[in-house]
Amino acid sequence: MAMLAVQKLRPVRHPPVQGPFQKSTRPNAQFVRMAASESATSDTMPISVKVPRVLTVAGSDSGGGAGIQADMKTCAALGVFCTTAITALTAQNTIGVQGIYPVPAKFLEKQLKSVLSDIGADVVKTGMLPSAECIETLCSVLDLFPIRAVVVDPVMVATSGDELAGAGILDALGKKLLPRTDILTPNMPEASQLLGGASVTNFEEMKKAAVEIHKMGPRYVLIKGGHLSGSDDMVDILYDGSEMHEYHGSRVETRNTHGTGCSLASAIAAELAKGSQMRQAVQAAKEYVKETIQRSSKLTIGGGSQGPLNHLHRLNHWERLGQSHFKPESLLLYAVTDSSMNERWGRSTSEAVKEVIEGGATIVQIREKEAESGDFLQEAEASLKVAREYGIPLVINDRLDIALACDADGVHLGQSDLPVSRARAILGPNKIIGVSCKTPEQAQRAWEEGADYIGSGGVYPTNTKQNNKTIGVEGLRKVCESSPLPVVAIGGIKDHNVQEVMASPRPKQLRGVAVVSGLFNQPDVAVAAKHFRAILAEALDESYSRAF
Ligand SMILES: Cc1ncc(COP(=O)(O)OP(=O)(O)O)c(N)n1
Ligand SMILES: Cc1ncsc1CCOP(=O)(O)O
User: Fold this and answer.
1) Which of 133, 383, 445, 521 has a C-alpha 20 to 30 A away from that of 29?
2) Pyridoxamine kinase/Phosphomethylpyrimidine kinase domain: which residues (predicted)?
3) Which of 29-33, 155-159, 385-389, 433-437 has the lowest mean pLDDT?
4) Average pLDDT score over residue span 227-233
5) Residues with Cβ < 8 Å from 285, sequence gap 6 or more?
6) Which of 462, 501, 532 to mutate to test the pocket of ligand 2 (most atoms within 8 A of CB)?
7) Ligand 2 neighbourhood includes 515 CB (under 6 angstroms)
8) CATH number for the 328-546 domain, one of 1.25.40.10, 1.20.1540.10, 3.30.2010.10, 3.20.20.70?
9) % of the chain at pLDDT higher than 70
10) What spacing in Å lies between the alpha carbon of 444 and ligand 2's midpoint?
11) For 292-332, what is each residue's pLDDT tens digit?
12) Where are the domains positioned within the chain?
């Protein structure tokens, strides 16, 4: 049995840091300790590890981008343990703030005391403080515990423009909190509000504002110049009462900036908690936020104008998602091979694949119902080589083992094949998984299990697949409307009925047609593919013009 190494807790002895400590009437409770297992108790590893701690006193953002949620993720990313005292719940998303539910001051006090009496905090960071009462409560609790620094982000207006704290807090902020603040981090509109509406719109006014706000009590004032207009150069100013320090950066073009202010203040708090001096902490925090914005710029979360950041980008979770070979547009002309048809016309599968791609196929599936595994693999490898030369995705019908063996771009599965969820677990997030669906229930399941697209049919009767139920154009539409997944129509699709399949009004999920005999049971595959592309172009154009 592994024994846990236990060491007696001692009251905190804070290392001396520059700047005022918060006054304390009571010794702090404890270290945050991680009990180390036996394997970690070598000569070089301490048996008790003191973890830097930040307490964030802020509002909850249900959208996960700002507030408490941003603070916790920032601290986690920077190696700091983050506790919370929630001042308000907000119903919020990437569009804006739909509601605010302030937490009663008495319950805020309970949270603060609960955390500080047990876990303690090296640094307290504040965000949304919705009322004067809440500020007074916070300050009276701060008097009771030793805190090394207080970082105040004077959150008043959300990035969406919604008000989070009214002018009613300014008096309490100025009288109670700012005199005990180590660093205050207003943006330009907040700086203006703190100064009773003074103009803070350019660099010179930012400097003047920093001097004026410094007189209100904070040791450092960091005015964020993100709102400076007419310049790609973004400047923040840090004023310590005698010197102005400038931090220059360049603007990153992205909608994903929601929670940037909370994240910067939390990053400063985290760096201070780890032992940095103020200027170092601001520098490191700015670098972290800059890198975070850059690494978040392509994320698609929510439909509003303010997307969140990827605080934990160093874990690289979402970068890999972006590497999928699949784009719904590639379903436009989906070529499904048939070696018996190709043999009849005197060509190998890989030759047919080359011709169909040259004619305009946008994705290829190798479908072999009779072939031995070794032959299937050889055919797949030769075809994949061709498809890669043209940058066209290639998937394997039914056989996950063949797809894995040749490292194809994915598989197409039928309802009687391996379940999509199992295939996804084996193939990982980046491979394409398509699944055949005839019913709305199957389509819904495909979506839930992680498929990339649906193949739906047979739309028309076909000789290529025996005993295959025909669902018609109506059945195809029902499948399209049952999940957000892109759909490709299949079954008996020929040049004379493509128009009908793709006719307007077309469900937005329907992205193209999958064809076997219409492409491969033809004397010239490239000509057949070109012909399909021309009809598709016309069908799409026509529905485009009808929509206007
Ligand atoms: C794009 C596309 N859609 C549907 C099918 C049919 O797949 P499945 O139901 O697995 O039937 P078989 O192709 O295995 O006979 C498909 N192959 N491709
Ligand atoms: C594989 C498949 N799945 C449903 S119909 C079908 C065959 C489509 O072939 P064709 O395009 O020749 O009708």
Assistant:
1) 133
2) 61-304
3) 29-33
4) 66
5) 264, 267, 268, 270, 271
6) 462
7) yes
8) 3.20.20.70
9) 88
10) 22
11) 999 998 888 999 999 999 999 988 888 766 666 689 999 99
12) 49-298, 328-546
d(CA 459, CA 463): 13
The structure tokens listed for 172 are 């309490």
Architecture, CATH, for domain 49-298: 3-Layer(aba) Sandwich (3.40)
Does the active-site annotation cover 391?
Answer: no
Work out the pLDDT band at 231, boundaries 50, 70, 90.
Answer: low
> Which of 368, 366, 392 is CA-nearest to residue 381?
366
Whole-number Å distance, alpha carbon 367 to ligand 1 midpoint, is 8
Most ligand 1 atoms within 8 A of CB, residue of 364, 367, 509 to mutate: 367
- Cβ–ligand 1 distance for 453 under 6 Å, the answer no
Q: What is residue 433's three-state secondary structure?
A: strand
Give me 337's structure tokens.
């091979």
What does the H/E/C string look like for 52-109?
CEEEEEEEEECCCCCHHHHHHHHHHHCCCEEEEEEEEEEEECCCCEEEEEECCHHHHH
Pocket perturbation via mutation, ligand 1, pick of 436, 442, 487 by most ligand atoms within 8 A of CB: 436
The answer to pTM > 0.95 is no
Q: What gap in Å lies between CA 68 and CA 48, rounded to an integer? A: 28
| 137 counts as catalytic | no
Quick check: is 259 catalytic?
yes
Say whether 530 is catalytic: no
Binned at pLDDT 50, 70 and 90, residue 542 comes out as low
Total residue length of the chain = 548
In the residue annotation, 224 being an active-site residue is answered as yes
- Residue 449's CB: how many other CB atoms inside 10 A? 15
Among 304, 289, 367, which residue's Cα sits nearest to residue 159? 304
427 CA distance to ligand 1 centroid (A)? Answer: 19
Active site residue 65: no
Q: From the candidates 260, 292, 349, 462, which is the catalytic residue? A: 260
User: What percentage of residues in the chain have a pLDDT greater than 90?
Assistant: 78
| Residue entry with tokens 């876990």 | 119
Per-residue pLDDT tens for 475-492?
A: 999 999 999 999 999 999
Measured from the CB, is residue 334 less than 6 Å from ligand 1? Answer: yes
The two three-digit tokens of residue 12, written as one number:
């905190």
C-alpha 385 – ligand 1 centre gap (Å): 23
* Cβ(515) – ligand 1 distance below 6 Å: no
